[in-house]
C-alpha cells in the first residue's frame, strides 16, 4: 500500500513545520466527543489538548460529533449546552451550581432547562481560525466556516458561512451537485481508493468524482 498518513498517530506528519497538527481521534477520550478518522486540529499551543481547551462546558447528555477528514484551525471552539443559563424568569444567575440551599430550591428549574441536542459537524468541513460554534448547531458535509465566525444556527452542506452571527454567504455547488456529492460520500471510501484517486477528490468537479465512483462500483445510477 502507498505511504499514507497513519490515523492512529497523534502527529501524522514528519514535516517539522506540521508538528502542531494532531489527528483528534487519537487524543480525545471523553465519551461525549466523537471524532472521525483523519480529522485534524492545528494549534502551535498544543493541538493534543483540544479536548480540554477547545470543547467548553462539556458535561451533560449532549455530545460533540465531528465527521471524517475535517480541518480545524487554531482557536476553533465548541460551546456545549452546559454553558446555558436560565432565561425563564427575572434573573439569569445560575444559583443551582453553587450547592446548599440555592441548589435545593432551584434544582428542578435547572433540570428543565431546554437542551438543543448534540452539536454535529459533518465530513470534509473546514473550520477557520478562532471560530466559535454554539450548542446544538449542525454543520453539513463540505461546509466552510470563515475565520472569526460565531455559528449560532445550522449551516447546510457545502455552504460557506461567516460573520457574527454567522450567515451563509454562498454555496460551493448547485443543489443537484451537493446531493450528488453526499451520495458519493468519498470520505467513507476505503483509504486505498481515496489514495489512488486523491487528485480527483481534491481538484475534480462533482461530475468527475461521480464518474470515478461509478467506475469503482461506489455509486449506483
Automatic annotation (TrEMBL):
Record's keyword terms, sorted: Repeat, Transferase
Domain of life: Bacteria
UniProt cross-references to Gene3D superfamilies, sorted A to Z: Hexapeptide repeat proteins
GO molecular function, one term: transferase activity
Designated name of the protein: Virginiamycin A acetyltransferase
Species of the source: Saccharopolyspora spinosa
Amino acid at each position: 500500500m502507498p505511504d499514507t498518513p497513519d490515523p492512529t498517530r497523534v502527529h501524522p506528519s514528519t514535516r517539522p513545520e506540521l508538528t502542531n497538527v494532531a489527528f483528534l481521534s487519537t487524543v480525545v477520550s471523553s465519551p461525549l466527543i466523537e471524532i472521525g478518522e483523519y480529522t485534524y486540529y492545528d494549534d502551535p499551543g498544543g493541538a493534543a489538548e483540544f479536548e480540554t481547551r477547545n470543547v467548553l462546558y462539556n458535561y451533560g447528555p449532549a455530545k460533540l460529533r465531528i465527521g471524517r477528514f475535517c480541518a480545524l484551525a487554531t482557536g476553533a471552539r465548541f460551546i456545549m449546552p452546559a454553558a446555558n443559563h436560565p432565561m425563564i424568569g427575572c434573573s439569569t444567575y445560575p444559583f443551582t451550581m453553587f450547592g446548599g440551599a440555592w441548589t435545593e430550591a432551584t434544582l428542578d428549574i435547572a433540570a428543565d432547562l431546554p437542551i438543543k441536542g448534540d452539536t454535529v459537524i459533518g465530513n470534509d468541513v473546514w473550520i477557520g481560525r478562532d471560530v466559535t460554534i454554539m450548542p446544538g448547531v449542525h454543520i453539513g458535509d463540505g461546509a466552510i466556516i470563515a475565520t472569526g465566525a460565531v455559528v449560532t444556527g445550522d449551516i447546510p452542506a457545502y455552504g460557506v458561512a461567516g460573520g457574527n452571527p454567522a450567515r451563509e454567504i454562498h454555496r460551493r455547488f448547485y443543489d443537484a451537485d451537493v446531493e450528488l456529492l453526499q451520495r458519493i460520500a468519498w470520505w467513507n471510501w476505503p483509504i486505498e481508493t481515496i489514495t489512488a484517486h486523491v487528485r480527483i477528490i481534491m481538484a475534480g468537479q462533482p461530475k468527475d468524482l461521480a464518474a470515478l465512483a461509478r467506475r469503482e462500483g461506489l455509486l449506483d445510477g
